[in-house]
Every structure is written in structure tokens, then in C-alpha cells.
Specification:
Radius of gyration: 21 Å
Order of helices and strands: HEHHEHHEHEEEHEEH
Bound molecules: iron/sulfur cluster
Number of strands: 8
Structural class: alpha/beta
Helix content: 25-40%
Number of helices: 8
Length: 305
Amino acid sequence: MGDRAASWPINRHPGGAPSLPESWATSMAAPLSALRASMLPSWPDCPRRGAAKQWRRDINASGYHLRESRSSVGAAVGTAVHAAAAHFLPIWTEPGAVSAAVEVAVLSFRADSAQGMVWDKNNIATPNIAEFQIRRMVAVYAEHVAPHVQPALVEQALQVSIGGGFWLSGHADIIVTGTRVVRDLKTGAQMRSYQAQLGGYSLLVRSQPEPIDVAGVAVDFIRRTPKTKPQNMPVSEALNLDVAERTAWSVIGHIKAAVTEFRRRLVCGIEPPEEAFLANPMSQMCHADYCPAHGIDFCPLGRHP
Ligand code: SF4
């Protein structure tokens, strides 16, 4: 514990309470202070994994030894389709726009795959299958989603102070003009619940120096269908804006409380600091492929595969 406390960049206080550098209240670079809207939906599934993924460098600086995490092939496919959508929307009426978007997606996937990733031997076992899925997902996006949106902002980087020296950031996919709906494109084998993330985007958009009024939040979902089956049509779902924003605030409150307790334990020498973050070894993602804390000192709970 001595090493952890000594290496942690918080001013130690004689009374045992953490004394944070004043700059932490105004800097997104302060350790464990930057939250992303995209981390909010999965945080309750295992807060300790969420912390390990979001603040790996800061946590290692406090004396732990988290592994680098690798992206999953499903996430890389999703990133590629996102890249295609962002490229396609401004040029969607031009000849060759779909081919250009597919090209962007494939290049994105190949760049990610060159970094190394976790493959899915049952559904996306090879790069050819991934690129086949990417091509047809981009095609249905171009044909069935893009014509119905008039984007005001696409992949706009936003950030806002959320109090106590914490910051929230995110890339809201699209804000549709006229209807003032924040839309997010999602892909995957199955639709999941994204209220907290969309609520986070809405809070970000409404909190800018020149706030944009938000009337709703919605998800455009494109299923990653197995290669042997026909591609499903996209599904668009409007979410309850109030519920989404409340859910985002609730998760943000839990994250801030856990981080504050983690810092307090480090500064005061209370063992074990990592237990400030609740851990859920029942999570489906409790596996060395998905959690940088699995089998490492930050979490002794994960079962070895
Ligand atoms: S090893 Fe399992 S319980 Fe521990 S942080 Fe990772 S996912 Fe959570």
C-alpha cells in the first residue's frame, strides 16, 4: 500500500482527508476525472471493469498493473460502419457516395484489425466475413437511414464540467435539424439499452456555451446479421428523453462517488482501494478478453477461462 499512496498524485493531508490539487477542478487531464457518455450504459454491469477500461493509465499510476485491452471484432465492425455513416451523410446525394463510404469503412476496419483484436469464432471468424458484414450494413444505412435525417452536427466532440472536478465528454452522432433529435447509430448482434448514453449526449448538447434545445433522443440500430442470413433492415427507436437524462445523471453520480472513495482510500492508506469500485464477476463480460483487470491485482474476482 505504501507504494500506491506514494505514487498517487494527490496531496496528502495531515488529517487523512484527500487534498486535491486546485487544477483538478478545471482540467480534464486530472486523474480519473474524465467520463465518457459511451461508458455510462455498461458501468452498472461491472463498475470495476468500467474504471479499468476508462482510466487504465491513471490506475496503473497508482500502483496497479492493468493489461492493455484489445478491441473486439464486433466493436471494430461498429466503428467502421460509424466511419462510413459520418463520411456518407454530407455527400449522400452524390454519385458513388455509397462506394466511397464502404471504402472508408473497410479502411477503418483494416486499421483497427492491424492493432490486434479479439475475434468471434462463432460469428466473425475472419476478416472476409467482417468486411462482408460491413459492406451490407453500410448499404442498408445508406438506403434506409441516411435519407431520413438532415444532420446539423455529425460526430461532434462535446465536453462539459459536471461538478466536483469531473468532466463528461462524448461524440453525439447526429442532431437532426427541425425535430431537434439527438440520434446515435448502433450496430451489434442484438439491440441493447442505450438510455444512459443517449441521455449523456442530450445533457452534453444542452450544456454547450450556445445550447441546442433537445426535443428527443433516438437510436438507429443495424443488426450484424450472420453471413449465411439476409441482412436485417435497420430499426429506429425513440427513447424517453427524461428517463434517458435521469439515467445518465444517476450513473454519473455513482461513478463520481466511487472515484471519490477510491481517491480517499489511496490517500488515507485504506486497503484495498480497488474495492471502492463494485465488481460483478457474474457479468457476461467477466473474461480476460474483455476486462483489463481480469486476473490482475485490481480484481481478484474474475474466474480464469
Ligand atoms: S475480472 Fe470480472 S469482476 Fe473483476 S473487474 Fe473484470 S469483469 Fe469485473
